[in-house]
From TrEMBL:
Family to which the UniProt record says this protein belongs: Belongs to the G-protein coupled receptor 1 family.
Name of the molecule in the record: G-protein coupled receptor 183
One GO CC annotation: plasma membrane
Bilayer topology term: Multi-pass membrane protein
Superkingdom of origin: Eukaryota
Keyword Lipid metabolism: no
Organism name: Scleropages formosus (Asian bonytongue)
């Protein structure tokens, strides 16, 4: 009863909630910090991937091609982050107009579903390479993979372009203009059904595909290793296991919380009308799960590490060079330190000789 009264007090006379951004003071510090880290790590990691892949375009295979598209998607997303950082730093205030808000929203959701779809493609690619290389090997040919990538981008556009017809900004009573916030879409007809369908198509089908592919793939690797120890230690199997672990990690940590959060609230909306307290809790949880989802830009380079040999070699070379430089600096400073110690010892010995009667 007390919660209901508080929820009703959070509503204005026109029925809109006034407590949805009560966490503004905390969010304007933590969210810009989070996205600054995502911007820096994501841009450097994905730019390095493209730098490694670019000289080897003629030797590109299916895995590298999917990884390249994933890296391009992540870089486009990171380049749009400064505007989001500004928005959060101003306390959920967007002074840049409706058009730029729609552009940044489009890039945001394109990155989300391009990431999901290309990771699904990577999973199926590994499945075919290990389990069905003879029957479906043609789908791993570079020319066919190029067409698959084009279809994926068209699918992503089909999933995201309808958003351009919706209003993305909203003028709040306190003068703030919000951009790409869930309450801005509350007036859209059949919103729960639309979002449940989007979760099913954009997350449900890919995650089932990935889980089925990797279950069969892991079973195949297990029996292959059991029958032949050399097979278990092969580079192809290690590569497949590395990609499996990274893709599952990204899905569990980044994409699952957001889509589960959307799904549970939309089901509640179908059953009854949530009050302002529930909507505020959902709004806070959305900000948190969206932060987690965007962290996939930082985790994707780990997929390249296992999927792309060139990327792995480049990283290892950089690490070895850094260790070598650190070791060289230690070696260079050590003789000098020894010389100083010897000189100081000689001075002490001479001084003690002069003072001895």
């Amino acid at each position: 009863m007390e919660a209901l009264q508080h929820g009703n007090s959070s509503r204005e006379q026109n029925g809109s909630c006034t407590n949805l951004y009560d966490h503004r003071s905390t969010a304007r510090i933590l969210m810009p910090l989070h996205y600054s880290i995502v911007f820096t790590v994501g841009l450097l990691g994905n730019a390095l991937a493209l730098h490694v892949i670019r000289p080897n375009l003629k030797k590109m295979n299916s895995t590298t091609l999917y990884s390249t598209n994933l890296a391009v998607s992540d870089i486009l997303f990171t380049l749009s982050l400064p505007l989001r950082i500004l928005y959060y730093a101003l306390g959920f205030h967007w002074p840049l107009g409706e058009t730029l808000c729609k552009v940044s929203s489009l890039i945001f959701y394109m990155n989300t579903y391009a990431g999901v779809n290309f990771m699904t493609c990577l999973s199926v690619d590994r499945f075919i390479a290990v389990v069905l290389p003879l029957r479906f090997g043609r789908f791993r040919k570079v020319q066919n993979v190029k067409y698959i990538c084009i279809v994926v981008w068209l699918l992503v556009l089909a999933q995201t372009l309808p958003m351009l017809s919706m209003p993305m900004t909203n003028q709040e009573e306190n003068g703030f203009i919000t951009c790409m916030e869930y309450p801005n879409f509350e007036k859209v007809d059949n919103l729960p059904v639309m979002l449940i369908g989007a979760v099913f198509l954009g997350y449900g089908i890919p995650v089932v595909t990935i889980l089925v592919s990797y279950s069969v793939l892991c079973r195949k690797l297990y029996f292959a290793a059991k029958s032949n120890h050399l097979t278990g230690k092969s580079g192809r199997n290690k590569k497949a296991i590395g990609v499996i672990c990274c893709v599952i990690l990204v899905f569990v940590v980044c994409f699952s919380p957001y889509h589960i959060d959307i799904l549970q609230y939309m089901i509640r909306k179908l059953l009854y009308s949530p009050d302002c307290m529930e909507l505020h809790s959902f709004q806070v949880s959305l900000h948190f799960t969206v932060c987690l989802m965007n962290f996939n830009t930082c985790l994707d380079p780990f997929i390249y590490f296992f999927a792309c040999k060139g990327y792995k070699r480049k990283i290892m070379k950089l690490l070895k060079r850094q260790v070598s430089m650190s070791f060289s600096s230690v070696v260079r400073t050590s003789p000098e330190a020894c010389s100083r110690d010897a000189a100081e010892g000689t001075e002490i010995h001479l001084a003690s000789s002069r003072t001895t009667p």
